[in-house]
Amino acid sequence: MTRNKLALSLAGLLLAPIAGTSFAQSAPATQDQSQAAPSQGNAKQLQTITVTGSALPRVDTETPSPVTVITAQQIARSGYTTISDVVRSISADNSGSIPNAFTAGFAAGSSGVALRGLTVNSTLVLIDGQRAANYAVSDDGQRSFVDLNTIPLAAVERIEVLKDGASSLYGADAIAGVVNIILRPNFKGIEGTADVGNSQHGGGFTKKATFLAGAGDLDKDRYNAYFSVQYEKDNPIWSRDREFPYNTNNLSSIGGPNPGVPGNNVGSTVGSITNPATGLLQPLRNCTPGTQLVTSSAGSYCYQDLINQYTLVAPQMEQGGIYGRITVKINDTTKAYLSASYMQSKTWSVNTPAQIQVTTPVNTTNITLPVGNPSNPFNAPAPINYAFGDIPQGNNYTNHNMRLVGGVQGTIGEWNYNTTAVINHTSLDTNQFGFINYQALVNAINNGTYNFANPSSNSAAVRASLAPGYAKTSTSDLDSLDFNASRSLFDLPGGSAGLAVGAQVRHEAQNDPTLNPNFEFQGLGNATTKGSRDVAGVYGEFDLPLLESLEADVSGRFDHYSDVGNNFSPKIGLKWKPLDWVAVRGTYSKGFRAPSFAENGSSSAQGFVTVTPPASFQALHGGNAYSSSPYAISEYTLANRNIKPEKANSFTFGVVVQPTSWLNASVDYYNIRKSNVIVTPDYGSALAAYWANGGTVPGVTITPDLADPQHPTALARPALLTGEYTNANSLKTTGVDVDIQGHWDFGSVKYISELQGTQIFEWKMILPGGIVQSYVGTQGPYNLSSGAGTPRNKGSWSNTVMYGPLTVTGTLYYTSGYQEIAEDVGVGPGSCLTLNGAGTAFQPGSCHVGSFYDFDLTGSYDINEHIAVTASLMNVFDRKAPFDPANYAGNNYNPTYTQSGVIGRFWNVGVKVKF
């Protein structure tokens, strides 16, 4: 095919030995490609590759759709050691992304990517172009996604990120884009790495190792076989090892609340009790070490900072696994391969001790010790405030991912074909400990079997009866068979027209047992998901080089789902090259997302959102703790078997320029409109109506909390909101991606620089009745995953210098700040998500969370051709995470974007060998 100067120079840049070291390029370089920049005369000798977003092998790697490529070399230079960290560092990853640090979420123990801020269920994750089984537990009990922790990084050749809708080829879920993790097709030799690292501020010691070995030459031996092994263990980081405000939830020193004060539904480990005669608090016993006696107008109590003593800012994680692949060359035109992997990811986390005072599933905020209970010194029932410090509470998650893939590739006549079979099974073991059984609590209080005044006297059997623990195993499956073929059709002025066709059948299933059987455990939400379906699809793509300067690409896919029916998704892309060094590109596509099993199966989910009642409600209760303190509201959502798929229309428009051989840049605008958005009921409007006058909205039932003892006739707080998933909303998001890359050769010194950034222009949810909620630049949508918000800008700037055996890379990452408001949980004056007892914002910056940047420095030195030493210093300037008291995934910070700011400066040293 005829290609102009831009295509050739881009290919030359991508194939050159010093190909970019930062995180965005126009397209990938494969292992088999030549290292020399091509000329017009050898362009046809370039080996064709298939770029994510196209089913057609092509020489011109610059497709109509924007594709970011992260090579194995770039990953090594980034200093990141997990797929999760690599993928989530992309500037297009935004609202709804799932960090490993969010151990209190439904999908704890996992990590997910959310391109364009459309949550994890609108980004399709592929491995070698094939689907993978979803995590066995849904995010927020609703959204299905692929866990990035169970993908073998040691075998990765490159990661391609398509920032464009791609349902026309891949089917459901590819609304925001596609992350295609491409593993090595072959390997010969031996490579190994070993690294250790630690945090300057304590905790988080890490050790990791990889090993890769392979033999055989496809051309000479007619086979190649290799395997990889990887292991990493990260120790936990305790909150107490970090500075204020990450090590406490007592914000009284800066005018904020102190949830450790009795009466705010949070007790101290040693406990406090209310004297029925005086109504004043008094300790059950002398305050033990780690607590302090506090005397106030409410009485005396033993204060203890539970966050400081018991919680983590980073969980303990252990990941590892093995991957192997064998490829056999059957004849000159046919080869077959078989690959298998087993990956395991373990996450261990602990929480604050269970409270005797909680609001769900049974409200025990007014629980009392009866007369005769050994811990009650009074002759009347005595309200008690208590936390079970002698019973550790937390969770262990172990995710197993087993994947078997086999395929045959070859040529028959003019057709190139590829058939692939996938069997993928995941199994997640969840073990939760320390959660209090409600009935056992009632029995212990009534019978006096648990000693609140002297916890050390309680036997192991007594503690086990209160917190018996619970274990469950959740599974997910994906089995698929895919066949596709491509060929050239006829000549056009710009080259040969290409055709690709394909068909796919697959089976999907998920079985996630209940998290809280019969709602027996206090302070714990609930979710259960069960469902299965069969999917059959056919797809096709035409590539039409209409002129040497104009290319059109047309594709479409038809799918039949056994549970939601049929769908057709078309796409058209155009690329125009008015000059040798300029390409203008654009696409228009329709996409869809089939409902998850949580949304239309035999499923339900109960989650919590922390709110502070508005000033008007506080006034009804005299501003007491009942009405002014933040507390958790339960939202219980049921699956809807009549739910419809989400639909999307999107287009992109971009320009790629390469005025010189050493500089190329691209700017791409995106516009996505999604309809039939599947959402939980309008809990926000229901709450607003309830706060106003005790009213509600259609589709939501509100169960009130127990009455305020001080104002029993006043409107009670809402405790439980119930409804079904519904196709209620539509949304629109627009923005722009910018990538600029330059590389310079100064003889003995080579220098590469790249700037990558994403700016979101708008992110709006349109509710029934035309109500518009705008989230960009705010902490909304707050009722989503970890409440991380939607920063307007995100970017990175990477610079690499190579001098002989030495390579040094410095990368600056930036995330813009945002207003600490969220229109999905309230708007207007006083809507700041975190308020003090007076109902006003207290945090510095007037309800604004600051921007964050950190700088990472990595390097390697080749001692000889076989041995290299490596080192990295992450967060070189020890930047601190901006204060964000509203985020409920981290303690006073946002781990989705600023986890490195709490970990602090972190070093790694290692060695790499290859033969």
Automatic annotation (TrEMBL):
Q: Report the leader peptide range.
A: 1-24
> One Pfam family for this entry, by name?
Plug
- List each copy of the TonB-dependent receptor plug domain by range: 62-178
Report how it sits in the membrane.
Answer: Multi-pass membrane protein
- Superkingdom classification of source: Bacteria
Its principal location?
A: membrane
Q: Where in the cell is it found?
A: Cell outer membrane
Looking at the record, the residues that make up the TonB-dependent receptor-like beta-barrel domain are 372-876
InterPro entries, A to Z: Beta-barrel_TonB, Beta-barrel_TonB_sf, Plug_dom, Plug_dom_sf, TonB-dep_rcpt-like
* Keyword set, alphabetical order: Cell outer membrane, Membrane, Signal, TonB box, Transmembrane, Transmembrane beta strand, Transport
Q: Which family does it belong to?
A: Belongs to the TonB-dependent receptor family.
The family database entries (PANTHER family) matched by this protein are listed as: PTHR47234, TONB-DEPENDENT RECEPTOR
The entry's protein name is TonB-dependent receptor
Its source organism is Dyella acidisoli
